[in-house]
Amino acid sequence: MKPNVLFSLFLLSFRLASAQPMPVSMQVDAAKPIGEMKPFWAFFGYDEPNYTTRKDGQKLLTELQQLSPVPVYVRAHNLLTSKGNSPGPDLKWGYTDAYREDASGKPIYKWTVVDSIIDTYVKRGMKPLMEIGFMPKDLSAKPEPYEHTWSKGGNIWTGWTYPPKDYDKWRELVYQWVNHSIDRYGKKEVTSWLWEVWNEPDIGYWSGTFDEYCKMYDYAADGLKRACPECTIGGPHTTSPRSDKAYSYLTRFIEHCLRGKNYATGKTGTPLQYIGFHAKGNPEFVDGHIRMNMDVQLKDIQRAFEAVNSFQELKNIPIIIGECDPEGCAACSATRDPKYGYRNGTMYSSYTAASFARIYELMDQYKVNLRGAVSWSFEFEDQPWFAGFRDLATHGVDKPVLNVFRMFGKMGGQRLSVRTDKGLNAGDIIARGVRAENDVHAIASKNGNTIGVMVWNYHDDDVTGPATPVQLTISGLDKNKVQVRHYRVDDKHSNSFEAWKAMGSPQQVSANQYKRLEEAGQLQELTPPAMKTVTNGKTTLTFDLPRQGVSFLQLTL
């Protein structure tokens, strides 16, 4: 064979070998705890409160509470919004008609719809992160036009975004709501809830000034505390603090609560019992594929933690990331913009696993008291199957991302040390994203005699690629044998979307197809449970992990 032919074959062989990912070695030390496995992920939210009581909404809420070892907190917009002239709930729109005024201006309170929503949570052992908003029509300083038509291309920032025409009536509305809640659910229950005022007042959700927002917050807090001094209130739930505007709004609000004049009482300071802000990624459609940007979401969190730590008075104050997502429009479908097409498949799953693990890392780094991180994702009614909204289920069928939360639900106790020869850390991702190579890493915990290890293979670019071989060694074991269960989310497991496509992507689903899709939407095991030998306190597990796949290894000692 000629030398040039030999060289060409060698070059081809080298290129093929180079295209295959190098094996990743991971070490988990079960004897080395690094901090609490706080279930801050057990928070969820959505814009459309009326979907709460629909059949599929109730089904999903039941599943969320069943997967969590702690009570799940639920945050919903529009709990005080009036129906106005709207025909019904819509994308980014809902209402309760809790408040109106008679011809003489006397307030009339009607809690029927609010109660139906909160009843749905409480019945399941869930807790509301109660959002005091938005402005009822009869209390709005600029009520017309009131209801928005965003889903039809109309203006979203209408009468519900304006300050109250009467701050005393606003305070009394909050007082009456809290008082009614105590009468209905009992004070012990209500004091376990979290309360907030409004949503993202630094953008169009609030058509007033910064000072008017502070005034509205002060009056709301005063009404709350008059009815329930033991209740917890916080805010301001501003947008991504990587922007100087949002960062300034957040810090100015904190300054007002700590040292400013209270508009409602005339005293110095306002109750602020947790800090709320939002953190969002920013996907793009690049060269024919979706590219995520986890770095900007983590930057939001990093910057907000820095802001909180700059106030010595706030040391150890609870922090809630009121919306914590890959981007900022749950109600935008993939047909609206192809960059939202990541939501049905495994990219959303692996992004969620990798990003939440880095939030734990940032929590440790900045030594903050992170109470919750709200995934702004629920379900949408009267929409096509797998329309590409940021939701956890479609038509009552769970999507792959929900199975990552099922994995988190199997973790608890103490987080364990994880070392890997390939994975990135939060600082790496903030600086460079996940572009040059895959992020293959893990988070682990030990709770009693159970060890859980979640392993992901994530990349910001949604393109095909080979699986990565993983060698996972768990040390610090004090038994001769352990039982191992291996759960997986990938194209073939825990994936209703792929099952639906294999059916031909039907929009009319038969009863038998629905049952099969329901089963495909549950968390599935990659292999049957097996016993593994422990030698010198160690056992090693090897497996291939597909790109954008997530594995969960559960070891029972």
From TrEMBL:
Residues 26-527 form the Glycosyl hydrolases family 39 N-terminal catalytic domain. It comes from the Bacteria. Pfam families: Glyco_hydro_39. Keywords: Glycosidase, Hydrolase, Signal. SUPFAM superfamilies: (Trans)glycosidases, Glycosyl hydrolase domain. InterPro entries: GH, GH39_cat, Glyco_hydro_39, Glycosyl_Hydrolase_39. The keyword Protein biosynthesis does not apply. Residues 1-19 form the signal peptide. Belongs to the glycosyl hydrolase 39 family. This is Beta-xylosidase. It comes from Nibrella viscosa.
